[in-house]
Design brief:
The protein has 5 helices and 3 strands, in the order αβαβααβα. By secondary structure, the protein is of the alpha/beta class. α2 (about 55-60) links the parallel β1 and β2 (about 70-75). The chain is elongated, with a radius of gyration of 17 Å. The two termini are about 35 Å apart. About 10% of the residues are buried.
């Protein structure tokens, strides 16, 4: 909400705010929605869409073909990430006989990179390789 402090629980909040601010400074009109918003439907044409991996494929499918779609990633691909998480859980179970029920390391399934014209990645060469 305008005037409220930017959350500091993850850098993505500052990064997204800065991206929007940069486009505003360049003279663009900017619409911002929560990445979990499942009800938003574009009612006007967009020149550019920058989205987080969550909900990207749904929103990209609602935009016109000439809209530039940029996926913004801050982690490895979900298939790699989740496979590695489950592998670590299995290895722990086999090694110690302990099963960890929940994990905060799982990434939501998404097809963002498959629906993007371009992608931006916050990470390193390893993250990019996934």
């Amino acid at each position: 909400m305008p005037g409220e402090p930017i959350p500091n629980s993850h850098t993505q909040y500052w990064e997204c705010s800065q991206i929007a601010r940069t486009f505003l400074d360049l003279g663009f009109a900017v619409d911002v929605i929560d990445s979990h918003n499942q009800t938003f439907h574009p009612t006007k044409p967009y020149v550019c869409f920058i989205g987080h991996r969550i909900n990207f494929d749904r929103l990209a499918g609602l935009l016109k073909q000439d809209c530039i779609k940029i996926a913004y990633f801050d982690t490895s691909h979900w298939v790699f990430n989740n496979s590695a998480t489950y592998r670590r859980k299995l290895e722990l179970q086999q090694r110690k006989g302990v099963t960890i029920e929940k994990s905060h390391r799982l990434v939501e399934h998404n097809l963002a990179v498959e629906h993007a014209d371009y992608a931006v990645l916050y990470g390193n060469e390893f993250t990019l390789s996934t």
